[in-house]
Design a protein that fits this description.
By secondary structure, the protein is mainly α. It has 18 helices and no strands. It has helices at about 15-25, 40-55, 60-70, 75-95, 105-120, 125-140, 145-155, 155-190, 190-210, 230-240, 245-265, 265-270, 280-285, 290-305, 310-325, 335-360, 365-395, 395-420. Helix 5 runs antiparallel to helix 6 and helix 10 (about 230-240) packs across helix 11. The longest helix has about 35 residues, at about 155-190. The chain is globular. About 60% of the residues are buried.
Length: about 425
């Protein structure tokens, strides 16, 4: 499928096979098949984790932010939702630039701007300023997806699954540490310190990546690089033409809706009786899902061995089962910890599988494909965040648990249905 024509970018377009190869060359790394520098993938994993963490800092702080800015319990989800909406906009408008511009300049430039947005969030005087700054943080945090696409493009196909798994593992770790670090910093120095410290870390990472990330030299086909407008439009076109992209995107929406339902809503029951936990304790529950980082690496290796279908099915079954112990949060914190481990493991196994499969559809359009896929992720995260706050305000934690389980079962049903249908665009070993 990597040689199919999209009709918009990198396709036949009347230029023939040679023209398609020429356009593809303009967005490929300078030395196909060569391994990236040894320290690059770990540094990209660290930078990805740090960038994505900025989207999740608010989750253990929701109750505090609600009190500070006079937001009711039914509106707390808006803090997460506005960040995710900014993230979705960035996926459509910024990530496609990875197929057009030099990765080093694009990544370091976005990291620099992200540091400024975090600074603005940490200094926000009111609710409107905070929400606006968080929307920009979400917009620029998509640099993580640009780095995932860069890691995939710089790695030979035989090791691409492991590279994507390593970088995605960094993202998982960043998400988990985001909650723990945000809770600890908030208890020690207030919620503003969370964003101010992150701004400094982001700026340092921008400098380090500027030194390590290879620059893409001009190519013979540079004149055939499509315009920015065509790149953005082609993101939609790619998903229209390839069923595998649409179905994997829909799975991402449902899986991350379930994920966000838990992590956007759990601060409310943990902050109140009978637990009344501190920010640090609430954030520490994110560490219970550290198995997610392990799942990312394992899933990458399984995908390299051709086990994508088994990984997806097992992950979705585990996701649905995780809500059984999570539903007991009001009675047992151990049940919540077990459920969090199962949920995070399942989500990351499916997520890595999805990204590995969709990149193979059109490697020359890797940034656009991953960006489009992550729009589904962001939409699901927004849906889960907003839905969990409304459900908790209406009927407490049982309603939140029912909502998360419903998203999980819907994902399992979608996968089972599409697997049997043999949808064109994915062979039996893929689905």
């Amino acid at each position: 499928m990597a040689t199919q024509c999209s009709g918009v970018v990198g396709g036949c377009g009347g230029r023939g096979e040679a023209g398609g190869r020429e356009a593809a060359a303009s967005v490929s790394p300078p030395a196909p098949g060569a391994s990236p520098p040894a320290r690059l993938i770990p540094l990209l994993a660290l930078a990805c984790g740090s960038s994505v963490a900025t989207v999740y800092f608010s989750q253990p702080l929701l109750v505090t932010l609600g009190e500070r800015f006079a937001l009711g319990s039914g509106l707390l989800g808006a803090i997460v939702t506005v960040t995710q909406l900014g993230y979705a906009m960035g996926l459509l408008l910024l990530v496609p630039l990875g197929d057009l511009l030099d990765h080093r300049r694009l990544v370091t430039g976005q990291l620099g701007l992200l540091a400024l947005a975090l600074l603005a969030a940490g200094l926000a005087p009111g609710a409107v300023a905070l929400l606006g700054a968080l929307a920009v943080v979400g917009l620029l945090a998509v640099v993580a997806q640009t780095m995932v696409a860069a890691a995939a493009a710089l790695t030979p196909p035989a090791r691409r699954g492991r590279a994507v798994g390593t970088v995605t593992g960094g993202i998982v770790t960043g998400i988990l540490l985001a909650r723990a670090a945000a809770g600890l910093l908030a208890d020690l120095a207030g919620w503003r310190a969370v964003y101010l410290v992150s701004a400094g870390v982001t700026a340092v990472l921008a400098v380090l990546l500027r030194r390590v990330l290879p620059a893409r030299p001009p190519s013979a086909g540079a004149r055939d690089v499509p315009s920015y407008g065509r790149l953005v439009v082609s993101t939609v076109t790619l998903f229209t033409r390839h069923p595998l992209l649409r179905i994997r995107g829909a799975l991402a929406l449902l899986v991350f809706a379930s994920f966000s339902t838990l992590w956007s809503g759990v601060a409310q029951p943990l902050s109140g009786p009978p637990w009344s936990l501190s920010h640090t304790a609430i954030g520490a529950f994110g560490l219970a899902g550290a198995a997610g980082a392990v799942a990312a690496g394992v899933a990458g290796r399984w995908n390299d061995r051709g086990y994508a279908q088994r990984t997806t099915g097992a992950g979705l079954v585990l996701l649905a089962l995780s809500w059984l112990p999570i539903a007991l949060t009001g009675r047992s914190l151990w049940a919540l910890a077990v459920g969090a481990v199962l949920l995070d493991f399942a989500v990351q196994a499916v997520h890595v599988t999805n990204q590995t499969l969709i990149h193979a559809v059109r490697p020359d359009a890797g940034s656009r494909i991953i960006g489009g896929y992550m729009v589904f992720y962001s939409a699901g995260s927004s849906l889960g965040a907003f839905g969990s706050s409304l459900a908790y305000a209406a009927a407490g934690w049982p309603a939140v648990s029912a909502l998360g389980a419903s998203f999980s079962l819907a994902a399992l049903l979608l996968w089972a249905t599409t697997r049997r249908s043999g949808v064109p665009g994915g062979g039996p070993g893929v689905w």
